[in-house]
Design brief:
Blueprint lengths: L2 H33 L9 H27 L7 H33 L25 H29 L27 H14 L3 E9 L2 E8 L3 E8 L2 E9 L20 H16 L6 H13 L24 E2 L6 E2 L6
Antiparallel strand pairs: 1-2, 2-3, 3-4, 5-6
Amino acid sequence: MSRPASRRFFLARGRVCVCVCVCVRRHQCATLGKMAEPLSVGVNLDAFAHAIGAIQQLRSSVTRVFDSLKDGMRNKETLEGREKAFISDFQENLHSVNRDLNELERLSNLVGRPSESHPLHNSGLLSLDPVQDKTPLYSQLLQAYKWSNKLQFHAGLASSLLNQQSLKRSAMQMGVSAKRRPKVQPSTLALPPQYVDDVIARIDRMFPDMSISLSRPNGSSAVLLVTLGKVLKAIVVMRSLFIDRTIIKAYHEHVLTDDGKLDIWSKSSHQVFQKVTDHATTALLHYQLPQMPDVVVRSFMTWLRSYIKLFQAPCQRCGRFLQDGLPPTWRDFRTLEAFHDTCRQ
């Protein structure tokens, strides 16, 4: 064979190799793209396994094609014999590639397409954005932050008030003996009885419609009997100028025991005055000023005097006189306005 003919043969062989590479690469990409999809309902797993084997067989066939092109024409004496043998081997390898491509295409059609409506269970919710109405995380965190700030503020106030009273019931310092511990008597708790009587007398003169009688049945501690018009009576138990507890009863109820002493334990038999007793206990916790106990007593008596119109003042929120059969039993600590227990929230 002449040189131009041989040159045309090798050029044609190069074009065939390029075409084989392009076809094999495209078919492999398409098949792998199908098999790369997530396996779920609708996928033939047996065909999928055979398709993987067909891909391996196709790769082997393509490798043999390139090996035959690399080796060229050998083992023949004449040039014509070598060309015929090369063309025969090359055609056989191309037929193998074509056969493997057809088999892979058939198996890829048998694999099937995965169903798009398969259930994902709880894992399908991971890609969804949370709904603000169902997951109010921000509002809960904001409320907890406000609550913690308020708790810290009130704890600081309680600590400062306890430190001002100087009531040390525990050891002041670790390692200090009880003999050397200074015994400090708080000045606000050791007020003379005459000073307490003067403060109560001044408060009694401030409110003409309120009468206050003072007695000391058990030593130096004073017990006050406060009569507010013809509405109620209040028994106020004091420790020096500090109010320990108070009990509110109706005007016609008995406030004395059989031996003639003030009954500081029994509650009122009427629900309305039981409510007022609870609110008075809350007022005792609200009015706290250890440095000026006389101001605390005067503020509490001013608040208690606002019940002079217990059965006459309507609720400032709903405007009604009765709610659940009860009048407005709550009085605001600052404005002294009347509210029902549920309307003050």
